[in-house]
């Protein structure tokens, strides 16, 4: 059931001074503008108004036929889109399938592509950017996987070959032979996939809510996988990057402007670094609209979940996730491209908090795994009202009219602070205010700028007063609010210039 915002009574802050009269403010529901075009600009994602965009969202991936059928209990509906937007999510990683696009060799399923386009429209109308994720796990159905059509792969499991299931089926010799076919393009699998992705790009070309096309989910190296351990596999990554470029060229022929998302090979999830765009091992990335799309899973936690190993292994997650984020930094710094963490989250609250903290520190967007429709058969309850909600539903700057600086959000009490350096833009900075963290309303204040939204707005807008840094605070009434650490520019105090409001939540 969709959560309704309640009325709240809170004290308003005007220009940094406390108003004596209480302000009764019904929390204003979020009515986001339709999603607009995004593009890469160095390591940032930028909207058509020149603002730096930060993305918080979820995955919605349908791995089984019939794919993307309304009412199947998985695919997002208009009601799901409303719920996601109300909680401040502005992106969905929508799974698409090579198997569904081209169920027969060379034959495009136009009806399926139409359903993809319809789902994009539903989400984009609520201001939600859609990443079209060519999803595969376990290569193809002969291995109980999904993604590549069975006709595209000639290898098959051998008689009596054990299949240990996800994720260990990647070690099966027959599956590795199948992956070798892909990377060598032995029977044209990459050519056909390029044709399928080009058809997808053609179908959605011009739709402003399409933030990009992700070429392949969690690609496995095939037979060379052991060469990726313990320090990464530049020889395979050279072949892999060539395959990504081949697929990118196919997409570009259909849509020269759409952002294209590249994942590292999936030994990344086992803590191996990527050699994408790492000269002289691999070529630089010269396409100006490529986005890095890593995942952040904790392998010790995954071993406990999927293989039944001791829960105590999860204590290693802070260290192992630190390794993953160091690898993210290495790729994005040398390639100078944006990063969106397109999967994370396995039910372990420590893993979740580690990802969100590190993403905030770097101003990196993310898409949580996983959200399924709660408005399909059998219904359901809002999953964000449970334990994960206060972590994932956050106060954060969705669009910044300037260069982002430091940001902090306390998921326990809703204290938020953000500093940025303004630059010219045709629209103001927009900060989504969580609908879960302020039961008695919120107080917002700005230093170096003015809050121009109405009291109680779910989306706080900020206009810079000059060229100096702008600092924005949002917190519960009576809270001292967050502060930025010393050495991060000015003191981080807020309220000397600006206005604020309150809302129920």
UniProtKB/TrEMBL annotation:
InterPro entries: GH, GH5_C, Glyco_hydro_5, Glyco_hydro_b, Glycosphingolipid_Hydrolases. Residues 486-505 have a biased composition (Low complexity). Residues 394-474 form the Glycoside hydrolase family 5 C-terminal domain. GO terms for biological process: carbohydrate derivative catabolic process; lipid catabolic process; polysaccharide catabolic process. GO terms for molecular function: hydrolase activity, hydrolyzing O-glycosyl compounds. Residues 76-371 form the Glycoside hydrolase family domain. Pfam families: Cellulase, Glyco_hydro_5_C. The keyword Hydrolase applies. Keywords: Glycosidase, Hydrolase, Signal. Residues 473-505 are annotated as: Disordered. Residues 1-20 form the signal peptide. Belongs to the glycosyl hydrolase 5 (cellulase A) family. This is Endoglycosylceramidase. It comes from Rhodococcus tukisamuensis.
């Amino acid at each position: 059931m969709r959560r309704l915002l309640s009325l709240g009574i809170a004290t308003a802050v005007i220009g940094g001074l406390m108003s004596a009269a209480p302000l009764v403010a019904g929390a204003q529901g979020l009515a986001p503008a339709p999603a607009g075009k995004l593009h890469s600009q160095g390591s940032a994602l930028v909207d058509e108004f020149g603002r730096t965009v930060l993305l918080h969202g979820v995955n919605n991936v349908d791995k089984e036929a019939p794919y993307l059928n309304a009412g199947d209990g998985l695919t997002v509906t208009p009601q799901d889109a409303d719920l996601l937007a109300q909680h401040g999510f502005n992106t969905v990683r929508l799974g698409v399938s090579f198997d569904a696009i081209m169920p027969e060799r060379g034959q495009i399923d136009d009806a399926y592509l139409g359903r993809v386009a319809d789902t994009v429209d539903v989400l984009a109308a609520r201001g939600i950017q859609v990443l079209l994720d060519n999803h595969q796990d376990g290569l193809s159905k002969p291995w109980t996987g999904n993604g590549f059509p069975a006709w595209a792969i000639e290898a098959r499991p051998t008689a009596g070959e054990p299949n240990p299931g996800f994720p260990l089926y990647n070690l099966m010799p027959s599956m590795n032979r199948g992956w070798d076919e892909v990377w060598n393009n032995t029977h044209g699998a990459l050519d056909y996939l390029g044709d399928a992705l080009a058809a997808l790009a053609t179908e959605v070309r011009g739709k402003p809510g399409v933030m990009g096309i992700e070429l392949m989910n969690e690609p496995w190296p095939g037979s060379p996988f052991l060469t990726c351990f313990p320090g990464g596999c530049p020889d395979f990554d050279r072949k892999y990057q060539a395959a990504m470029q081949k697929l990118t060229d196919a997409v570009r022929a259909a849509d020269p402007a759409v952002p294209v998302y590249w994942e590292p090979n999936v030994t990344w999830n086992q803590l191996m670094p990527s050699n994408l765009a790492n000269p002289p091992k691999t070529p630089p990335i010269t396409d100006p609209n490529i986005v890095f799309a890593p995942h952040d899973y904790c392998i010790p936690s995954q071993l406990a979940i999927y293989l039944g190993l001791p829960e105590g292994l999860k204590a290693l997650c802070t260290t192992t996730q630190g390794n993953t984020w160091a690898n993210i930094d290495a790729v994005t710094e040398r390639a100078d491209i944006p990063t969106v963490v397109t999967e994370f989250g396995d039910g372990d609250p420590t893993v979740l908090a580690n990802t969100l903290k590190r993403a905030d520190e770097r101003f990196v967007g993310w898409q949580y795994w996983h959200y399924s429709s709660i408005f399909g058969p059998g219904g359901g309850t809002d999953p964000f009202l449970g334990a994960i909600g206060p972590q994932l539903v956050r106060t954060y700057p969705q669009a910044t009219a300037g260069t982002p600086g430091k940001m902090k959000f306390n998921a326990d009490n809703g204290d938020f602070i953000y500093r940025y350096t303004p630059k010219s833009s045709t629209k103001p900075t927009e900060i989504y205010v969580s609908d879960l963290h302020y039961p008695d309303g919120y107080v917002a204040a700005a230093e170096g700028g003015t809050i121009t939204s109405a009291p109680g707005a779910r989306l706080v807008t900020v206009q810079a007063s000059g060229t100096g840094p702008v600092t924005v605070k949002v917190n519960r009434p009576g809270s001292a609010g967050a502060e930025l650490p010393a050495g991060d520019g000015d003191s981080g105090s807020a309220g000397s210039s600006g206005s604020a409001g309150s809302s129920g939540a």
